What we know:
It is a single chain. The chain has 2 domains: 4-58, N-terminal domain of TfIIb; 71-132, no CATH class. It is built from 4 helices and 6 strands; from the N terminus they run E-E-E-E-E-E-H-H-H-H. The chain has helices spanning 71-90, 94-102, 107-112, 116-134; strands at 4-7, 13-17, 20-27, 33-37, 48-52, 55-58. Helix 1 packs across helix 2 and helix 1 (71-90) packs across helix 4. The longest helix has 20 residues, at 71-90.
Amino acid sequence: xxxxxxxxxxxxxxxxxxxxxxxxxxxxxxxxxxxxxxxxxxxxxxxxxxxxxxxxxxxxxxxxxxxxxxxxxxxxxxxxxxxxxxxxxxxxxxxxxxxxxxxxxxxxxxxxxxxxxxxxxxxxxxxxxxxxxxxxxxxxxxxxxxxxxxxxxxxxx
Length: 157
């Protein structure tokens, strides 16, 4: 079974394996990465996964998952992450990055995407966050502090 790497809504790396999504738990000292099920807290799912690069080393599932898997929602989250990165890389608008990613998606993933208005707002927030980080933490240009300027008065008669 293939391992597909994705991105969570907060920008964290995820793994989609056998229709379930896993979030990164830690990097082990031996060079492997431990992952736990994304529904760990909400559904008390104890499923775990260990990878080394792009290969599965161990698939420890005490019992089974406590929920059903949906690969379409995981791939939809991955697509939203791709939209955010394309928007920042190309300095594009939210609608153009949306269109470039949506063109390559399957129908089941398209059905799992958020509403267009919600997605546009999410992408605009990500763009503002990136612009804020690039400007040194302020979203607007700095206010001028130089108050030594001459005022010129022109009278028209």
